[in-house]
Amino acid sequence: MTILVTGATGSVGRLMVDELLALGAPVRALTVDPKRAQLPAEAEVVVGSLARPSTLPVALKGVSAVYLAPMARTVRRFCELASDAGVERVVALSGSSVGDEHEGSSGHEYAAVEAAVREAGFARTFLRPGVFMNNTLGWAPMVRAGEVATAYGDATQTPIDLGDIAAVAARVLVSDGHDGATYVLGGPEAISQREQVETLGSVLGRKIRFRELTPAEQRAQWIAYGVPEAAVGWLLEGFEETLRHPQVPTGVVEELLGRPGTTYADWVAARREVFA
Q1: What pLDDT digit, counting tens, does each position of 100-151 carry?
Q2: pLDDT for position 34
């Protein structure tokens, strides 16, 4: 059962290749830049991209299952080509924002991917992670300077490690009982942004101050960084929502993997060099 990993140089896709190989699955990796990806020798590499559907027929030949990175623009063409190639199963990376009607929400793209895969009739599983721990890598310059400034310090979410998403996706692809399932994925703990900064200080052994920005200050900062205004509005509303209604762990990662999910402290400890 050859499994095609699309977006094999992406943040989750690259980890997926390693997870599948560790489970003994035959892997074909789709990437536009094999040299940069530094993929394991055990993986079959095909040059191509979901963004260029003309590259997909070769990649899909002889494939029974696909890990599908989210790309709404070409997903319907992917589904046509995958059906023609005889693909049976698709595990699609989606997001917990599906169903969010805000104009700036990422949920519109994810919903389009899910709809196309569902309508194509594959045996399918949708993975809907929430906020990524990796998002706080953007704090690294502030951490090194000794102060993290952001809005909604007490907004409480359940950030997830990308490695746990990849591990779940790999397990779902190689095991039975997941067809038709939609899994909402989160980390093992509810933690506020202020508490994340405290954790960074504790793990790094340094004093790191937290400074609360107003929503207006945060909006201006993100817009200056080039984030579209609609997306800024959606992000700020999301933090406000988790301030009023703190998220709680779903426990799905632990149930599917049979092990604890990665805590924020463990995630930071593995990336000391980034923040130090």
Answers
A1: 989 999 999 999 999 999 999 999 999 999 999 999 999 999 999 999 999 9
A2: 82
Residue 36: the pLDDT is 79
DSSP H helical segments within 32-177, as ranges? Answer: 34-37, 56-60, 75-85, 107-120, 140-145, 162-174
Degrees, nearest 5: CA angle 248-251-252: 125
Give the separation between CA 228 and CA 98, rounded to whole angstroms: 19
SS3 state of residue 211: strand
Domain of residue 92 covers 2-129
| pLDDT for the residue 35 | 80
Does 78 map to a domain? yes
| 87, part of any domain | yes
Q: Per-residue pLDDT tens for 21-39?
A: 999 999 999 999 888 778 9
Q: Is residue 219 part of a domain?
A: no
CA atoms within 13 A on the CB side of 213: 16
Distances in Å between the alpha carbon of 257 and those of 60, 84, 107?
28, 33, 26
A 10 A CB-CB count for 20 gives 26
